[in-house]
Amino acid sequence: MSSSPSASGPSSLADVAPLSLCAREPHVPADRLVAEMVPPPRFDAVRFDTYIPDPNQPSQTEAVRVLSGFAAGLGGAHASGAGKKRWFRKKAPAPTGPRGVYLDGGYGVGKTHLLASLWHATPAAPEQKAFGTFVELTNLVGALGFQQTVRTLSDHRLLCIDEFELDDPGDTVLVSSLLSKLVEQGVALAATSNTLPGKLGEGRFAATDFMREIQGLSAHFKALRIDGEDYRHRGLPEAPAPYSREQVTKAAYATAGASLDDFPHLLAHLAKVHPSRYGALTDQLTAVCLTEVTPVPDQSTALRLVVLADRLYDREVPVLASGVPFDRLFSEEMLNGGYRKKYFRAISRLTALARDAKGLVPA
Description:
Blueprint: H1 30-35, H2 58-72, E1 100-104, H3 111-121, E2 129-133, H4 134-144, H5 146-153, E3 158-162, H6 169-184, E4 188-193, H7 208-218, E5 221-225, H8 245-254, E6 258-262, H9 263-270, H10 278-281, E7 287-293, H11 299-314, E8 319-323, H12 332-335, H13 340-356
Parallel strand pairs: 1-4, 1-5, 2-3, 3-4, 6-7, 7-8
Helix pairs in contact: 2-3, 4-5, 5-6, 6-7, 11-13
């Protein structure tokens, strides 16, 4: 008698064939986009006291101190009187000084951990706090429209934006306008990025209008620098080398809830699915198995892969692969270009997920 497949590891035989990401074309309603603006599953349980600062990096300890104080300061009434009937509310006075904090640092120093800890520590009901990536925020505006997004978020105590990115002038104007409206309504802001606010966009666009928007946006935040090395690989063994196609296929068939896709086919499929749906694309997966991983052919494809890597990492989905190692996904030109920090983040996260997948293959 064959053993039953298990999500925690392989069995000798699988009862059903693995799933396929390429067969999925999810539809995500707008209300789901709003409801899912909370820290992702990987960061459900994180708190300030579970963040372990590197003793050689005092900026990490300082970040915990500053953010703890920031969260405590958000207690009490909403700055614009949220909860009162609007027709009795006086217009909120214009905020003086920055109304938010901006966590700047390299990939893997724990910025998302700290941002999620801030969300958890802020004394407000979950529906009064929002947490999402920059891409998810722009997707929300696309789904609801600008004015409805302002109305939806204006009574929030806090908006946390992870991986703040400004990849084109249109998004720059959009987000700058949105945040300005929310600050006027008394919403506090917190964001993470790999680049200081005044330096966003360097190496990408040089248009005068773009740089003007960058400067206006940076005024909303007090920058908080966090130094350190990538904790995902600090003191850990090297990521496992890619497996053979046969090993990956066997593991996919032996693991309940796993997907199995040819990597080039998956890249082609991602071009047909809006990035706002990549989270739904991975719903209920226990592992992602990929065969014939090759370097990505162009920048558009690479940026889509970055978004998928982020969603898989948020959801703690192990990735088992054959082909080239993940540190060879992106060309030298890409790694030296304007999006290099995105690509290094993707390599870092995929490497961590590859390490998580090691148990799917028999020793």
